[in-house]
Amino acid sequence: MHKVSLLFGVHMHQPVDNFGEAVDEAIEKCYKPFFETMANYPQFKFSVHCSGWLLDQIVTKHPDIFKNMQKLTRCGSIEWISAGYYEPILSSIPSNDRVNQINKLNKYIKKRFDVKPKGLWLTERVWESSIVPDLDKADIDFALVDDYHFLSSGFDKSQMDGYFETEESGKKLALFPISGALRYALPFFSVEKAIDAIENCKKEEDSTAIIFDDAEKFGLWPETYEWVYEKGWLKDFVGAVIKNKKIKTEHFGDFKKKTKSKGIAYLNNTSYFEMGEWSLREYQTIAIEELKKRVGFEYFENIGIAFIKGGIWKNFFVKYEESNYLHKRMLYMSKFQDKMSKKSLELLYALQTNDVFWHGVFGGLYLPNLRDNAYKYLLGLEKTFANTKIQYKVDDFDMDGYDELKVLTNSFSFVFSSKNGGQMVEFGSLDKFFNWQNSITRRKEAYHEKILNPPVIQNNEQSNDEIATIHNLVEEIDDNLKENLIFDWYLKYSFIDHISNVPFNLENFKKANFREIGDFANQPFELDKRVKTFSRDGGIYLDNMFKTNIQKNILLKKTD
């Protein structure tokens, strides 16, 4: 009897320097009980990826978890999977940094567990073929993507039971497609239904059931701690798999060594479907969901998935100017890493962590602590280039086609934007490593539609042998949220030129509904590099348009 090879893996990550209580909760509800449970089943083979910062937290502060990890590694249960140490989106950082971040995590794993990873967890499953040559340099043999990557690129569902080979510039990489069906089944279905879902992956000899997903689903997601541990789902599931004569657990690397690939594959630049939706403008996200409903679930799943797609991950840099600004400041600093100390390089790599650059079902860019942390790393780098002389530099730092004026003193880092009215977009303290200008623009998001126009809640009773995923939880809408949904029509920077013929007050400023009669608040200014002056020939609009010029001179004086 041919068995289904279950390739089971978990991915563990917390944002770098996340709140201590958030990490502690993840430890107690998820990581600790997960490895305690798995330690009782050393014959169950599975794979683990843990971002470097979190792994170091576990090694240094939670020896009980580390001990179980070591035990499971020594007995051959765990296969370690690599990625960038600080969990960057690999396609969003420079080539050299990709290799260095992967090598850094590989060396850490080798030192702590005496194994060298050959596989790669693709952070947020963001795929671009440009990363393949760099993975080759880092001695990575295979990577994990979603089956959605293949299906949206024209492959058939029946082919998703093995691995494929791809190449870029002649450098090869094997790709394993993670099963979307299993991602939504484990651990949310009953053990019996989960086992059925695995068995249904069997199509022929050497068939695989591939699941690699967030470890946080096993205890940290809503309702999962009680389900997975208190009610015993995980131990029951692992025990059922071990006893099942139709399933055998294997490691990705071992399966690849003994099995031929299913052929060559070239994939779209993509991530998982939800990420593609989140990267769109809010009205586009609503439209694509409506389009899916119109064509029907069956058509979308079987045919339309190759044609109905969202955006690419880098659209977040288009959608959110604040994200693009941070990202491009990082890229600019990366140019000077040959002049950086080892400590400064760590700041650069920490700045590349992915969480702050995007926003989906979780907070991401909207979380001020993540932005504060990112600026902490950025300003730490800036301090290494500061001296007693005031330094002025004009360049298109954020790569949007408009120059910025950057002023660096021994205590502060200032940046002024010509695209946005000569406004101050960065006011960074090199003593506190804090950006006082770290604000966020209030934008309309697709999920606001549920607040503005609440859907009719269907009385669908949930089966007592499954729980809801975070994607389909039903929440009651607080009517008070509506009045607090305020959307800005201009970016929330400083030195903004508002002109109005009605009084300003806190209330109309908060609601952004004061009457604007000038065209200076969100329009470009000309930058004179010689004298550090921003100017605009604009207008004031009443019954007629009155031509108006505004100039801003940027002058900093040294103080004792």
Structure overview:
With 560 residues, this protein is α/β, with parallel strands linked by helices. It has a domain at 4-268: Alpha-Beta Barrel (7-stranded beta/alpha barrel). 35% of the residues lie in helices and 17% in strands. The protein has 21 helices and 17 strands. The model has no long low-confidence stretch (mean pLDDT 94).
Outline of this structure?
The protein has 560 residues and is an alpha/beta fold.
**Percentage beta strand:** 15-25%
Strands, count: 17
Q: Report the top-level CATH class of the domain at 4-268.
A: Alpha Beta
Terminal-residue CA separation: 83 Å
Classification by helices and strands: alpha/beta
Tally of DSSP helical segments: 21
Question: pLDDT average, as an integer?
Answer: 94
What's the structural blueprint in terms of helices and strands?
Layout: E1 4-12, H1 20-38, E2 46-50, H2 52-61, H3 63-74, E3 78-82, H4 95-113, E4 119-121, H5 132-137, E5 142-146, H6 147-151, E6 164-168, E7 171-178, H7 180-185, H8 191-199, E8 208-214, H9 224-230, H10 233-243, E9 247-249, H11 252-258, H12 273-278, H13 282-295, H14 297-302, H15 315-319, H16 321-334, H17 342-351, H18 368-383, E10 391-395, E11 404-408, E12 412-417, E13 423-429, E14 434-435, H19 449-452, H20 480-484, H21 506-511, E15 526-528, E16 533-541, E17 545-553
Parallel strand pairs: 1-2, 1-8, 1-9, 2-3, 3-4, 4-5, 5-7
Antiparallel strand pairs: 6-7, 10-11, 11-12, 12-13, 13-14, 15-16, 16-17
